[in-house]
Specification:
Layout (H helix, E strand, L loop, with lengths): L1 H9 L2 E3 L8 E3 L7 H12 L9 E5 L2 H13 L2 E7 L10 E5 L10 E5 L8 E9 L3 H13 L2 E10 L4 H6 L2 E6 L5
Parallel strand pairs: 3-4, 3-7, 7-8, 8-9
Antiparallel strand pairs: 1-2, 4-6, 5-6
Helix pairs in contact: 2-3
Length: 181
C-alpha cells in the first residue's frame, strides 16, 4: 500500500496560473501509470471486503473509472451515477436527487437507473476525491431511495472538512489532501 501511495503522490500535480492563486488538482498522471491502474481497484476495495458489498457505485466520470476497477476487484457489478441524467424514453426509470453545494458551489442533479440498485444490495461508493462531500451525500440518498444499504465510501483523496460526515458515511481514503505535494 505504501508503494501505491507514493506512486499516487509522484504522479499528481497542482496546477495554477501565475496570476491566479487558486490551485487545481491534476490527477491525469495516475491513469498513465500501469502500476497504479493495477493496484488502485484492489486497494480501494480492501477496507470493505469484509462488508460484502454487492454493487459499487460511482459518479461520472472518474468515479465511474475507479468504480469499475473496484467492482472488478470485489467480483461484483457496477452502477454508474450520472450528473444531470436525461431519459431517452419516458419508461426509463431513475432514482434522482440534488446535491448540496460542491467545491465550485454548484448544486448538481445526480441519478442512477432504478434497475441498477435493488432492495437488499449493499452499496460501496467510490470516487477519486471528496471535498465538500456533497456528491457522496447525494449518492447515499440514492441508495436509501432504492431500499439498498450503504456499505461505505472509498476514495483516493480525502479533503473533507466535516469529520462527522466522514464517520457517518464510513469514508476510507488512500491519501489525505495534506499528503499531496
Amino acid at each position: 500500500m505504501s508503494d501505491l501511495r507514493e506512486r499516487l503522490r509522484e504522479n499528481f500535480r497542482w496546477l495554477s496560473d501565475r496570476t491566479d492563486p487558486t490551485l487545481s488538482a491534476d490527477v491525469t498522471g495516475w491513469w498513465r501509470d500501469p502500476a497504479i491502474i493495477d493496484r488502485i481497484g484492489p486497494s480501494l476495495a480492501a477496507p470493505f471486503a469484509g462488508d460484502a458489498p454487492t454493487v459499487v457505485m460511482g459518479p461520472s466520470s472518474r468515479g465511474s473509472l475507479l468504480g469499475v476497477l473496484v467492482a472488478h476487484a470485489l467480483g461484483v457489478g457496477f452502477a454508474e451515477v450520472r450528473k444531470d441524467p436525461s431519459r431517452p424514453v419516458d419508461s426509463d426509470a431513475w432514482w434522482e436527487t440534488t446535491t448540496g453545494p460542491d467545491y465550485r458551489d454548484r448544486h448538481l442533479r445526480l441519478g442512477v437507473r432504478r434497475g441498477l440498485l435493488r432492495s437488499g444490495d449493499r452499496v460501496l461508493f467510490v470516487d477519486d476525491w471528496v471535498d465538500t462531500g456533497a456528491q457522496m451525500e447525494a449518492c447515499h440518498r440514492l441508495v436509501e431511495l432504492s431500499g439498498a444499504s450503504w456499505a461505505g465510501a472509498s476514495v483516493v483523496v480525502d479533503a473533507l472538512q466535516r469529520p462527522t460526515l466522514r464517520r457517518r458515511l464510513r469514508l476510507h481514503s488512500l491519501l489525505h489532501v495534506r499528503d499531496l505535494p
